Amino acid sequence: MSPSVTLSAIAAGPDDMKALGAVLGGLLRSGDTVLLGGELGAGKTTFVQGLAAALGIEEAVTSPTFVLVHSYRTAAGWDLLHADVWRLEQLQEVIDLALPEQVEDGGAAVVEWGEMAAPALAPDCLHVAIGFADDQSCPGDNASRGLDDNAGAGGARRVVFRALGPNWDQRMAGLKTALAS
Ligand SMILES: Nc1ncnc2c1ncn2[C@@H]1O[C@H](COP(=O)(O)OP(=O)(O)OP(=O)(O)O)[C@@H](O)[C@H]1O
Ligand SMILES: [Mg+2]
Q1: What's the CATH number where 149 sits?
Q2: Average pLDDT over all residues of the chain
Q3: Predicted TM-score (pTM) of this structure
Q4: Atom of ligand 1 at shortest distance to CA of 38?
Q5: 1 is a domain residue
Q6: Residue 148 CA: which ligand is closest?
Q7: Ligand number with the minimum distance to the CA of 47
Q8: 121 φ/ψ sector (left φ>0, alpha ψ -120 to 50, else beta)
Q9: Has residue 15 been placed in a domain?
Q10: For ligand 1, is residue 132 a contact (CB within 6 Å)?
Q11: Does the structure show a pLDDT above 60 at 34?
């Protein structure tokens, strides 16, 4: 098991969160899987909106909570799969989405509440945990589905990027540079 490499950043508001998503979007390529963690209203979809814009996606990116997966064609010609597995109770339901297969066929997957689905996703992935910046608990630790006092709240968020495999370990230096610029 490789050592876990982490980077963190603060998003003061929604536009900042989109900017962080755009930084990752600039590095994302076909074959990638990103797990997005964070409580209800943390800013996961907002992050994906910035990420998608950086990939040249002009359609409005909305929450895929009820349809489970949205697919957008990037300017580079591969598909960005934006999934939200919050409603799925059984791992089998996530397996049925066949996200790893679709990624292999030419796409990248960004999965909200992805920690819950990790066993059904590519193991070598990037974990992005979004937490309320005034919350003392570590973002991503709380994968609870319960309603949270913070849901929909304004204010700063902490975003922690963690490589979960050798592919992303190697790319963290590039992400660090991109976040700093
Ligand atoms: N710093 C911030 N970063 C991101 N979003 C913020 C921030 N401050 C306020 N917001 C607001 O919080 C809300 C976050 O909603 P968003 O749908 O992105 O969260 P989510 O994590 O995807 O929620 P869900 O768990 O329901 O899918 C938006 O209305 C956004 O404008
Ligand atoms: Mg969302």
Answers
A1: 3.40.50.300
A2: 89
A3: 0.91
A4: 21
A5: no
A6: 1
A7: 1
A8: beta
A9: yes
A10: no
A11: yes
